[in-house]
Amino acid sequence: MKIEDFAYIVETEKSFDEAVVSVLRAVDKKGWALFQVYDVRERLAAKGFNQKPLKIIEICSGKYANQFLNKNRLISLCMPCKINVLEENEKVKIVGMKPTMISQFFPEVDRKEAEQVETDMIEMVDNAR
Questions:
Q1: Fold of the 3-128 domain
Q2: How do strand 91-97 and strand 7-12 relate by DSSP bridges?
Q3: What 3-state DSSP class applies to 24?
């Protein structure tokens, strides 16, 4: 398996903080719910570890969540969806997990259903770029 199989990655010219705000705006514009934003760098710094900037943004579409949970409640292990903003090699990247991965673990989810979610995810990442 390759990274491209489960992650959609784009680079942005925006600063790290600008990229985070841009993701939040893209999520809001798409009508998805924001669950939580984790500042991984800050949390690890509190434990004495040094990391480059990384924020994990948890988001959810009630429509898709309900649809998938009605098929198999264990799909909740893959929820909520995440878009990460990170700094790597002096570049700011916006990364979304590809929801089509769900159909590989849960055969009751048709790949076409997961592609609908993935289309939204890619659109949000691209709009945040």
A1: TATA-Binding Protein (3.30.310)
A2: antiparallel
A3: helix
| CA quadruple 36, 63, 94, 53: dihedral, nearest 10 | 10
- pLDDT tens figures, 28-80: 999 999 999 999 999 999 999 999 999 999 999 999 999 999 999 999 999 99
Paired tokens of 50: 């040094």
pLDDT in tens, 101-129: 999 899 999 999 999 999 999 999 999 99
Residue 26 near residue 128, CB atoms below 8 Å: yes
Q: How would DSSP label each residue in 37-63?
A: EEEHHHHHHTTT-----EEEEEEE-HH
Please give the structure tokens belonging to residue 7: 């992650």
Largest CA distance in the chain: 44
Q: Cβ(8)–Cβ(98) under 8 Å? A: yes
